[in-house]
Amino acid sequence: MSVQMKTVLKHLVAKQQGYVELRWHRRLSHQFVATKGRVDVANQGVTEGVGVRALVDGAWGFAATADVSEPAIKRAIEQAQLNARLIASIRGQRPNTLGIGKLSTKDFIGAGFKELVELSVADKLGQVISMEQELAKSSKLMHTAKVRYSEYLEEKAIVTSDGACCSMQIAQPELSVSAIAEKDGQRSTSHKGAGVSGGWNCLFKHPTLDHVIDDVSKTAVDLLAAKYPEGGKKICILAPAVVGLLCHEAIGHTVEADFVKSGSVAQGKIGQQVASKLVTMADSGCESIAGYAVGNLPFDDEGIETENTVIIKDGILNSYLHNRETAAEFGVTPTGNSRAWMFSDEPLIRMRNTYIVPGKQKLSDMIMGLEDGYLIEGAGSGQADANGEFMFGSSYVWEIKNGKKTNLLREATLSGIAFDVLKTVDAVSEEFLWDLGTGHCGKGQPAKVDAGGPYIRCEIDIGGRQS
Fold it and tell me: What's the pTM value of the predicted model, to 2 decimals?
């Protein structure tokens, strides 16, 4: 259907003057949650419509319609153009050019799309129920077992008056497993999850889901007897999920060009050293390191083909993340980071798959080279601001003494200034993992993204507490 809609949109755009962008979007979603031996959630949703943007006298106008007939789309185009003229009349005409990038003409069908369409709801739900039952029975100390599966089956067609004419069908499934263990009134939790751009089989081949039931159960139970880490500034090894959290929340948002224009810490720092020379960081819509990241997209919602954008190269800030408008303003090529969650949303500058490039050291050697510190795993929630100052949670850490991983410890908080932390990196592993493919990034509207990286060794502030 995406190719058929592309033909309809192309016909309508050909009759317009000035810049017009049409985006048809259909999403089929499923979500299942099983806990305590029952199915708590079994939802299905379908949304479909066309979003329209028009650029008139330097002003943007937007309109959307859930009616995908040609007359309705034509009315939405007229409304978007009217909205643009009204805004231009209020603020005055201004020059507004769009960056020239590679406009896509692809008709893309992603791996796993047909597989998930054809796989029955009963099969998907059955797997979720089976895994929850297995987790619940894994230990006598298991208080609560929960397994959540969700998927998005996305179809889009994008046509612009200056040459983009593309369509795609992509699948984005994810699975989360969580456990709460209890003993003598004390509880501890453990969680693992993964998401992919691909199908059912691709999802269950994700390395994070290897032995996921046993790992989640054992960690939850072991944490019942665990102490808390000692607070203070420590030399730590950050696991890929924590690296991804740092990349996305504390650095990635500061280099989105709209935030840069608003005065983020990255403003004016292109060409400056912001990290150790061992650090190269990128954001990719077509990642090729592991092949399963959930943020893979053939083109963005302006029809620009996605690429691998190197944000930091050998410690030097190299690029911001752009849509077509900010790319023209900064005098660079669009990076393919313009994304909208629904057809009724205007595209924003968003990340896709954000990561640090693998290094040359082995994790085992990095641990052997650390006399006193922590291996930080179990990435949790957190926050960061425009200055790159962050505070993240970690559900568990491993103590490292005399080059050996020793005691499992309870949750800790991590804090610091992101670029300052990256300047202390003295080792980067060759091991790599995408490990933040569940849930959504929020920036006024959700977005499916991924993040990860190698293990990195750095200095960071740890917040613990007395046991």
Answer: 0.95
Distance, CA of 348 to CA of 159 (rounded, Å): 18
Tell me, what DSSP letter sits at residue 307?
-
Q: How far apart are CA 16 and CA 22, in angstroms?
A: 11
388: left (phi over 0), alpha (psi -120 to 50) or beta: left
What confidence tens digit (pLDDT) does each residue in 94-124 have?
878 899 999 999 999 999 999 999 999 999 9
Per-residue pLDDT tens for 292-311? Answer: 899 999 999 999 999 999 99
Handedness of CA 414, 418, 420, 421 (dihedral sign): positive
Number of Cβ atoms within 10 Å of the Cβ of 398: 20
| Torsion angles phi and psi, residue 371, rounded to 5 | -80, -40
Please give the torsion angle defined by the CA atoms of residues 201, 202, 203 and 205, in that order, rounded to the nearest 10 degrees. 90
| Structure tokens belonging to residue 82 | 């009217």
Tell how far CA 412 is from the center of its chain.
Answer: 23
Q: Which of 399, 23, 383, 439 has its CA nearest to residue 192?
A: 439
Strand partners, 33: 41, 148
For the segment 166-207, what is each residue's pLDDT rounded down to a tens digit?
Answer: 999 999 999 999 999 999 999 999 999 999 999 999 999 999
Tell the residue number behind the tokens 């983020």, with chain if given.
Answer: 264
Cα separation of 450 and 432, whole Å? 13
CB count in 10 Å sphere of residue 19:
19
**Burial (0-12, 13-18, 19+ Cβ within 10 Å), 240:** buried
What does the alpha-carbon distance between residue 174 and residue 440 come to, in Å, rounded to a whole number?
Answer: 11
Calculate Rg over the CA atoms of the chain: 23
The CATH code belonging to domain 2-225 is 3.30.2290.10
The helix (H) or strand (E) run that includes residue 309 is strand 308-313
CB–CB of 29/44 below 8 Å? Answer: yes
| Contact (CB, 8 A) for 434 and 211 | no
- Looking at residue 58, the DSSP 8-state letter turns out to be T
Distance of CA 306 to the CA centre of its chain: 15
450-453 sheet: strands from edge to edge? 316-317, 308-313, 281-284, 353-356, 450-453, 433-434
Average pLDDT, the chain: 95
Residues of the chain with CATH 3.30.2290.10: 2-225
Tell me how far the alpha carbon of residue 289 is from its chain's centroid.
16
Tokens coding 46: 């379908």
